[in-house]
Amino acid sequence: MAMKVRDPLLFRQLFDRESYTYTYLLADLRFEDKPAVLIDPVDTQVQRDLKLINELGVHLLYGMNTHVHADHVTGTGLLKRELSTVQSVISKASGAKADIHLEPYEKIYFGNFYLEARPTPGHTAGCLTYVLYDSKPSNGTATATPQEPRMAFTGDALLIRGCGRTDFQQGNAEVLYESVHKHIFTLPDDTLLYPAHDYHGRSVTTVEEEKKWNPRLSKSKEEFLSIMKELKMDYPKLIDFALPRNMRCGVPDEQ
Ligand SMILES: N[C@@H](CCC(=O)N[C@@H](CSS)C(=O)NCC(=O)O)C(=O)O
Ligand SMILES: [Fe+2]
Questions:
Q1: Cα Rg of the chain (Å, integer)
Q2: Which of 141, 164, 209, 225 could cysteine-pair with 156, CB 3.0–4.6 Å?
Q3: pLDDT score, position 192
Q4: 9-246: in CATH 3.40.50.410
């Protein structure tokens, strides 16, 4: 049943201090059952997420991954065990197991909101950026223009003043540069961008800020390639354990 509410979007940003991962809960408050999605849950935080889902009274439809994570285990498989209505979602290009495999530009609806899956490969071959739209914005509000995105969940393609590394999981710096410029920097300047990680205590940015101030992606492609080539980063501690698990929704057995 549809209801009138001041801001129909319920939005929560959650943080895992071990892996510096952000998980996002979104729901449509215009519907009595509050249909919801959870983006990039972490396995060790699933009880926290379930508690919040219960407290807020939302009905979780989808557990979504932006990509096959290398640094932590996804919580989507455990969520499916706890909540039978939940379907796991990832890109087809990831090659990972899930209930729903997204092709580029496919949409995931929860209530009147939907997330469009923009292909943003480069950090991994199957990275998606989920762009949030309201299919039925109410008239007379700041967000009333139909089809104006409000926010986007960039995974590791774009980090605040940074970007995902490109030295494993079919990483490719040239592809990443093209992805971000074609599918993220073309969003309206005021679109809020939420990454999968932040290592410096920052929580949100905008398209305008990143086009101007991102020390890697605001540069020319040649400069970007050279920056990425020079990055000297340690391999994620959990990579050998996390990658095979995340190819199976984060759980050891079949879901
Ligand atoms: N030290 C951490 C891993 C840190 C890391 O490699 N982060 C990734 C995103 S998770 S795949 C990354 O792309 N970072 C880019 C950057 O510039 O920070 C660990 O051991 O888990
Ligand atoms: Fe990653």
A1: 17
A2: 164
A3: 98
A4: no
First to last CA, the chain: 32
166 alpha carbon – ligand 1 mean position (Å): 10
pTM of the model: 0.96
On whether ipTM exceeds 0.85, the answer is yes
- Residue 163 Cα to ligand 2 middle (Å): 10
Residue whose entry in the numeric block shows the structure tokens 């209530």: 111
Tell me, in angstroms, the distance from the centre of ligand 1 to residue 129's CA: 18
Strand bridging mode 113-119 / 128-134:
antiparallel
For ligand 1, mutation pick of 66, 161, 214, 233 (most atoms within 8 Å of CB): 233
| Lookup result for tokens 């967000």 | 143
pLDDT band at 255 (very low <50, low <70, confident <90, very high): very low
Q: What's the distance, CA 91 to chain centroid? A: 11
Provide the pairing of β-strand 192-195 with 151-155.
parallel
All structural domains of the chain with their residue ranges: 9-246
Cβ of 233 below 6 Å from ligand 1: yes
> What tokens were used for 164?
């995902």
